[in-house]
Amino acid sequence: MNKSTIHLVVFACNWDGLSCIEEAARGGLTYPASVRVVRVSCLSRVHQGLMLKAFELGADGVMLLGCEPGNCQYDIDAGLVTREYEKARIVLGLLGLGKERLVLCHIPRGDGPGFVRRVTDFLKELEQVRPAIPARA
Amino acid sequence: MFDTEREIIESKIRLCLDCGKCTVVCPVAQYDPEFNPRLIAQRRLSQNSHSPQDETIWQCISCYMCVERCNYYVKFPEFIHGLRAEALAEGAQLQCTHGGALQALQHMMAREDLLQDRLSWLPQDIELSEQSDTIFFVGCAPYFDIVFSDLEVNTLKGVEGALRLLNRAQIPFNILANERCCGRDLLLQGDREGFLALAKANMQEFARYGVKKIITNCPECRYTLKVDYPNVLGDTGIQVMHLTEVIAPLVQSGELSLGELEKRATYHDPCTLGRCSRIFDEPRQILRAVTGLDVVEMEQSREKALCCGASPWVYCGAVNRQIQDQRLTQATATGADILVTTCPKCQIHLRCAQKSRDGKIPQIEIQDLAFLAARSLDIGGESVG
Amino acid sequence: MAEEELRIGVFVCDCGLNIAGSVDTEEVRLTAEKLPDVVVSVRNKYTCADPGQEEIKKHIREYNLNRVVVASCTPLLHESTFRNCAAEAGLNPYLLEMASIREHCSWVHLHDREAATEKAKDIVKIAVARARLLEAQKEMEIPVTDAALVIGGGVAGIQAALDLADAGHQVYLVEKEPSIGGIMAQLDKTFPTMDCSICVLGPKMMDVGRHPRIELLAYSEVEAVSGYVGNFKVRVRRKARYVNEDECTVCGDCAEVCPVVLPDEFQQGFSSRKGAYIPLPQAVPPAYLIDMEHCLGNNPIACDKCLKACEKQCIDLNMQDQIVKLDVGTIIMATGMKIYDPTPLDEYGYTRFENVITSIEFERLICGGGPTDGHLERPSDHQTPKRIGFIQCVGSRTENRGNPYCSNVCCMNTVKDSLLIKEHHPDAEIYVFYIDIRAFGKGFEDLFRRSKEEGVNYIRGLPGEITEDPTTKNLRIRVENTTAARVEEYELDMVILAVGLEPTDDLKQLANMLNISQTSDGFAMEAHPKLRPVDAPTPGIFFAGSVEAPKDVKDSVTQAGAAVARSSIILNSPTLKMEALKAVVDFDKCTSCGVCAKVCPYGAIKVDIKAKTGAHVVAAACAGCGTCAAECRFDAITMQHFSDAQILAQIDAALEEEPEKKIISFLCNWCSYAGGDLAGVSRLQYPPNNRFIRTMCSGRVDEKFILHAFEKGAPLILLSGCHINDCHYISANHWTKRRAEKLWKRMEKLGIRPERLQLQWVSAAEGPRFAQLMRDLEDMRLKVTPEEIEHTKTVLAEHRLSKESAEEEEETLEPQVETA
Prior knowledge:
The complex is a heterotrimer. By secondary structure, chain A is α/β, with parallel strands linked by helices. Helix content of chain A is 39%, strand content 17%. Chain A has a four-stranded parallel sheet with strand order 2-1-3-4, with helices on both faces. In chain A, helix 1 crosses helix 4 (112-129) and helix 2 (48-56) runs parallel beside helix 3. Chain A starts with 7 loop residues before the first strand and ends in an 8-residue tail after the last helix. Chain B is α/β, with parallel strands linked by helices. Chain B has a four-stranded parallel sheet, with helices on both faces. Chain B has a three-stranded parallel sheet with strand order 1-2-3, with helices on both faces. In chain B, helix 1 (4-11) runs antiparallel to helix 6 (76-89). By secondary structure, chain C is of the alpha/beta class. In chain C, the strands form 13 sheets. Chain C has a five-stranded parallel sheet with strand order 10-7-6-18-29. In chain C, strands 20-27-21-22-23 form a five-stranded parallel sheet. Chain C has a four-stranded parallel sheet with strand order 2-1-3-4, sandwiched between helices. Chain C is globular. Chains in contact: A-B, B-C. The interface between A and B is medium-sized, with 20 and 24 residues.
């Protein structure tokens, strides 16, 4: 496993979230191939189990990319995913992996460059936090 | 390590008389006619290589009621755990509860280079003896309280109570900063690889600190550390005790006095502490030592205690809920104000039931025994809920 | 030592494939032929059969053999067979030696032909070594008292007493209850014939009461037994009845006026009796008695109503217990069994739920002579139950409260009971909850079929719990119908628990008195389960009925007849020959120190320490354990047929080649050797590195044997005998233990690891334990280094030469155990 590769999983909601990513692609913007996107219909689909599973499988960082407040396609209470996110963060802290590895982002719809910037910053933060953790053998 | 043929012999499943008493007393079978422990055994014993995998093996809650009544004390839960391991090896998928959060964090906890940050809840005034070769094993309490924060179950309060009692009894102990989950849940699910990883990691920690004795507030940890670890890894040379085993003799002899609490309480025997480890009296002795506490028994107690409807984080459903409802109804029927138990899992599962069905399930207050005992001495902090 | 030239014949048995299958018997035969003093070596397919025995006799005559070695099965099985064979050919039977190459070799080393054959050759060599030193013996004859004691007056005891008496022998029948009859008297009907039980038993009981040669001692208990076969001395306590048995006319006036009311045990507590009572109307002896434990008092007499009411004046409230001393030649134990009390099975609610009763309680309810005159009523409201359930295997076939064995009669008893109910109430709904229906005997399947034809429902499954409706007192049963694979609920008016059967409470005490062992189930242990099913291992004592294992009336009666036949063999002859295994004192060496007298468990040696007239052995009382010979520090006692020289020769032969590979085990005839036989019979496998030396008792094993074996290079020695309170010779193994402890101290001082002498007790019933012990010993042997063995040999040789052994702790011998 290449130690210098930092694996990132981005859970993106189908609407606001995915639009940023698609826009980035259309704009020809690039980001490392080790950033993997998982599309969900709504970010509230992503409970703490899925977040932790990503880390178990070898992710160094997880980004939750969702809609801006009030924009939810399904009118779902944003508190749902926030609570799950906070729980998973604390678990990551307990495990000693570091809360910072999990972030919840709201980027305006269609903001491709914004997305790429956020991802690049996140990757840089992760590089500094500690060396990449090897996945379970 | 694990030897399926030897396990089948040791479980004595071949002695099964096919009498069906297990099915009658099984709480899962009571609510689900499709679940039949006797048939699971018979199907497996007469299996040829082409028969389909038995789906019902995931429903057993390992409550040991069947063993209690069986003529030959056939170790049915252990047999089931073996069947699950077999099924997983043949490619079956685990149906994890809570989205697999517990499995994920338990797997991650087995990593060798892990450096957890799990002691921030520890109050400043708890005395630790860093030189002691006795440790208090906290278990997954810090994790449970987060993962299940909406249940407001707070198992750490029980741990804290236990620590205060030990301090008050002047029993020295240390707490390891990097202890792992004991692995019982993974073992029960059939995930032997996962269990082994945790067990080895724990044994390394114990060896590093020269641990000779372990006290814990969780019956599952007690059983796994005491029985499963030596079974699989060889004699550990470590003595393992539940908190009540340590505190009860002191309370009986008068060396430790407890305080006062004017309430009526009923004690729920956790299956792993009661039927599995035969510890029924010690928790009751401690409760009776609290002045003013009226201790009453539910209709099914001690060897006959009804399970809390536990599942080792796989396959939890309506049946578990019904068992929990039945148990909480039994508790309420005693007129008790508090349901006391010494197992964090029981607390989680019963609280989960209380939070469901729009509160139609009896809402009796649930407390950890160590927490109650410590609180009676005004050293436990505020009550739960 | 033989004066004439030794001519030994060795007969190697194939035993079909039992031996030949895993041992090369031809090779064994060839090797035996080459041993010194062996003139002929023969192989046979079945040596114990007629042709085999004829061959032995032929060879004795043709080759002029004066010693015979038969290498075949265990001596415990056929030593007497071959002794008789030798005697028929004119050879003294004590010149025969058996080498067990079956139970101790071919059966336990099934998968290593080479090793098994080598071991068999060794075993034969050891046997030949002993045979060289055997001497002709004359058996002493003792007079036999022509009388028998039958303990227990149930159907087995009754039958035994009648058969013995009819055969012309005097019989003493001792029964602890006030009347004979036992459990059979309490039954309504018996299966499979559906005879009325008491109708069949009653006449037999009367015959016992009337028989001129039967002295019936009812309401009596055996307190002590001493002596030996042909000459038992029994002390019996006749408890005071307070009523003159011979005068009582059974009028019942005393009972009418007696103010004390008690539960009637015969009616299982469903009705009451008075303090003055008769246990059942058909009681034999036909007499009332006063229950003094509950009487208002007889010292001083508190109430004299019974005295006043008795016209015949046969009540004597000052009666005392009487001690009766009996001389008998044989004893038949027929003390029966006890019914399991299902109270611990709280899931069935016995004693908490009124309408849950046991099968014996049901017998009284349905019996015409019972508390309800035979009307089936249920306890709570005396109504006729319409829906009745039987639960089988209560307290049987379980390790979870109860007993692990099957109690034999409960299945058929329930089938019978179901038909009884149908007779009274054809519309009754009857359910039998079972795991198996064991209808194995003659007429049993037929009865079972009748029961099904009558509409009795057989549901395969055992109820997990019973709950009671508090108002109706009906019972709700939850059971998995395993055939249908679904949990079912039944509401029943009455539930009958088919309870199992157990040994009686006083069996242990009685067993101690008679030197009888109990099997792991607690019942009395027979000498051999197939070939000697009614003999106790102790000569002269026999079993009849359920004392040996639960059984029905037919089997009890059959067994009683068998016990009588065996007993008659002894009683029919005026004298009995005793095995020549006695202790013989050499007065030249004897110093009258008195040690032998102190250690003899039978008190068979008399020594006047002051007069110094030597130790005198009462030969008839000597049981041949050999403890005296082992303890005698002056080597003044020789054991017939088990001399020091013979045993030392066996050790030498065993350790002649490759001693470091051989574990020497001293096994006692009754327990550990038999335990080894059982391991063989069970085909349990263990390593072939052990050589057994049999003595009658572990007490025989002199410390010099052990030191000699170590000096010859033995890596490990096992000293084994009966469990500490079960010694066949009462207490001899206590001396064995003490001797081992002294030896360990000595070994430690000499720098020999004490663990190399193992002391382990193994009973005749512990086959698996024996096999495991052999495996454990082999593990231990592998840890003994060649250096250790060499060092031991050197040290012991020096030790022996410097004769320091005489100076050992000059402690006076204090027996730690009461001799009989």
